[in-house]
Fold:
Amino acid sequence: MVKITDVARHAGVSPSTVSYVLSGKRSISAETVRRVRASIRELGYRPHAGARALASSRSNVLALVIPLRTGIHVPVVMQFAVSVVTTARRHDHDVLLLTQEEGEEGVRRVADSALVDAVIVMDVQLHDERLPMLRSLDRPSVLIGFPSETEGLTCIDLDFRAAGEACLEHLAGLGHRAVGLIGSPPEVYERETGYAQRTADGFLAAAGRHGVAATVHPCEATGEAARTLVDRLLAEQPELTAVVIHNEPIVAPLVKAFQDAGRRVPADLSVVAICPDDLAEHAELPLTSVAIPAEEVGRRSVELLMAKLDGAEVPPATLLPPRLTPRASTARTGTASAGSEGVARTGTGTASVN
Structure:
């Protein structure tokens, strides 16, 4: 095992200088830091975690609170988690996973015991009960998602309101005047999860501006629920010519259900999905989509934490603009009529669209 004395001898400095380079507790010349770090890489030196924590008052561990509960699509959650873990390792940090079920107590436990240096929280609700605790922690935190009140917090996410708007505007530009949003499972809206509610809000707001009849439909993430919803939609809204799908597990079942019901995609029905690029690209019919930038959000959330740990100022809000990629699932409609009117409905109420 390579020791700190081996690194010191190789770099031509004292062991205490190597220690100061690792801890950052004393100013060391750039040339000496470069030489010590080169020796560390060449020799493969790995500081003892316990000793390093004692020396620097840091654990070099981040906590990531991930949502593992109903209505959550775990493969997409894991894309965020993998990005957080790989980025943390580039910053010489490990990641401790906490599940949503541990809630406020789990975060408080690891923070108060100094097990972690900082916290990343996913699956943020508009009125999240964890916010007072996060504001009071003596550890920095970053939220992947936006609550309704962001004061005193650092948040990052895709701009889901703009994503909902982009989907509707793309379809309106193709002449569609009756469009449905097939959204997350009902319990996601009942929890007032930020990304789901903001997508619906943006979708409906854009529909109002463009004079499009728009409806929002929560849907359980099962094939049976997808087929049932398609049958109901086509019975109640035979004029429907386009849908936006924001429910990753049932993208393929929904498209198949529409096709089985006699709607050709995109000749009779245009489809836009809000989902990871790989899901849209590798669908049987490549789907026009707004990408979920899981890798970028995960990476930048860690970078925000690293900056906060170093005492740097960071922006309180980082909203990533949506990127819509047209593919084979959307086309211009030949039956659109301008100036149509309708009613936009969510799972909890109605709003007029003109």
Notes: Confidence is low (pLDDT under 50) at residues 335-354.
